[in-house]
């Protein structure tokens, strides 16, 4: 397991390595999906052959799916970590 730096602030220290990996995966899904969508979308507009247009259209759809998965993953992992943190440390209102 990777050595984690301890800042002393539980907000930053709580599951820091997981948050870093989850953020990288989310960024990969979103940027990869956008890139695939735009590149294949431009190719779709330029192709004259019906077979190539179908293939480019499917690739555009895969790019949109990857983008949607990246957004959904981002909401999921952030809410999960937030709920776990609140379960362990409580909310700010409870600490007052």
Which keywords apply here?
4 helices; rod-shaped; 96 residues; mainly alpha
Radius of gyration: 20 Å
Number of strands: 0
Mean pLDDT: 89
Helix vs. strand class: mainly alpha
Strand % is under 5%
Main sheet: strands, sense, barrel: none
Domains counted in the coordinates: how many?
1
- How many helices? The count is 4
One letter per element, helices H and strands E, the order comes to HHHH
Measured distance between first and last alpha carbons:
35 Å
Helix content: over 70%
Return residue spans where pLDDT drops below 50 for at least 5 consecutive residues: none
Using the alpha-carbon principal axes, give the shape: rod-shaped
Polypeptide structure, described:
The chain has 96 residues and is mainly α. It has one domain (19-89). 82% of the residues lie in helices and 0% in strands. It has helices at 10-13, 16-46, 50-89, 92-95. Helix 2 runs antiparallel to helix 3. The longest helix is centred in the last third of the chain and has 40 residues, at 50-89. The mean pLDDT is 89.
């Amino acid at each position: 397991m990777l050595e984690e730096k301890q800042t002393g602030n539980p907000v930053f220290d709580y599951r820091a390595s997981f948050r870093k990996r989850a953020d990288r995966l989310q960024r990969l899904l979103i940027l990869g999906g956008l890139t695939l969508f735009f590149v294949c979308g431009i190719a779709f507009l330029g192709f004259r052959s019906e077979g190539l247009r179908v293939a480019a259209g499917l690739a555009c759809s895969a790019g949109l799916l990857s983008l949607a998965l990246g957004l959904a993953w981002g909401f999921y992992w952030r809410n999960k970590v937030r709920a776990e943190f609140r379960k362990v440390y409580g909310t700010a209102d409870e600490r007052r």
